[in-house]
Amino acid sequence: MILTLIIAFFSLIALMIIHEFGHFIIAKKFGVRVDEFGIGYPPRIFGKKFGETIYSINWLPLGAFVRIYGEEGGVDDYRSFLGQAIWKRVLIVLGGVIAFWLAAIVIFSVVFLIGADLPIADGDYTGLQNPKVVIISTSANSPAQLAGLKDKDIILSIIDSNSQVKKIDSISDFQEASKNNVGKEITLNINRKGQELIVSLIPRLNPPPGEGSVGVGLSRTATLIKKSAWYMAPVQGTVYTWETTVNALKGLWQVFTNLTSGKGAPQGAEFAGPLGITVFLAQAANLGVGFFLYFIGSISVFIAIFNLFPIPALDGGKFVFLMIEKIMKKPVPAKVEQIITAVFFFILISLSIFITIRFDIPRFYEYVKASFIK
């Protein structure tokens, strides 16, 4: 599972690189000097200058960055950021957000090309194609782990202690069968990479908190995205990106209204920073390549929307400063913009640290415990 976690982490980093590349390529297109394009954050490991731009690899693998000449203000010549027309600066600022949406279109197009099994609610039954219950984790020293069950195993049926065969169509089916046979041997018919296997175990009477009698984490999936012809996949990927954007905006609005009205986060909403998202991606990989790519595409859309928030230190905040300049006929003083941006950057970093400590580290610990401590 270490490899899965590494792939998930670098997939998230790849999105950040694509984002910065959006700023980079538009700035270059308009003839603005780009001083550095860096992967990771300083201190620098390696840097090589091609033309007027340094391309660097840096020690802190938390994203990427672009240093555009004059972006911080104080420089106003024809090669600087400030020396460009406002419409050009707007496109440079929004280039990263546009890159996120373009990445989502490409990713969703691939998903439609290969098809995808996606998680579904336990009570959904109408019109489902290929519904199944998949193991996504096993707890250390649990009956499941000791019996040799593995992530990605599909549970087909259970033979209980009375030799009755029960087909498993939902997570509740499995939970009910396990509960009714605590302390008794049951046999699971599973599908592992296309091969059917038989596994026997005894559900325990007093499991550790949060583990259950068998000690497995389960997800119910169905084929919700069917394979498309290669020439239709880009069209469907584009449409799906739009639909995902609309649904994401509705979801974020619900979160906002619930929080401001004191109702708390809506059911199913979870707070996560980069570490938490990495864990979610690693878990998504257990449900197949299709869902893994689907999840990355969805994250790309969500981050694009988040970056448009009118908050200094985000692309949306920079856009607001440009609109103020357009209205006032003069730019916000560089020093004022830098101070405001620094304050909000500190707030965002503090919030990120809080989310990491409060939500992400416990989530990461549970993932590591379930995946590696066996």
Features:
elongated; Pdz3 Domain; alpha+beta; 374 residues; 49% helix; 2 domains; two-stranded antiparallel ribbon; 7-stranded antiparallel sheet
What report would you give on this structure?
- With 374 residues, the protein is of the alpha+beta class.
- Helices cover 49% and strands 21% of the residues.
- The chain has helices at 2-29, 86-114, 143-147, 171-179, 233-260, 274-285, 289-307, 315-328, 334-371, and strands at 34-50, 53-68, 116-119, 132-138, 154-159, 165-167, 186-192, 195-201, 216-225.
- Strands 3, 4, 5, 6, 7, 8 and 9 form a 7-stranded antiparallel beta sheet that branches.
- A hairpin with a 2-residue loop joins strand 1 (34-50) and strand 2 (53-68).
- Helix 1 (2-29) runs antiparallel to helix 2, helix 1 packs across helix 6 and helix 6 packs antiparallel against helix 7 (289-307).
- The protein is elongated and about 85 Å long.
- The N and C termini lie close together (12 Å).
Mean pLDDT: 90
Shape: elongated
N- to C-terminal separation? Answer: 12 Å
Helix content: 40-55%
Largest sheet, strands/sense/barrel: 7 strands, antiparallel
Chain oligomer state: single chain
Structural class: alpha+beta
Number of domains: 2
The helix/strand order is HEEHEEHEEHEEEHHHHH
**Total of DSSP H or I helical runs spanning 4+ residues:** 9
Number of strands: 9
Q: Enumerate the spans where pLDDT stays under 50 for 5 or more consecutive residues.
A: none
User: How much β-strand is present in the residues?
Assistant: 15-25%
**Compute the gyration radius: what is it?**
25 Å
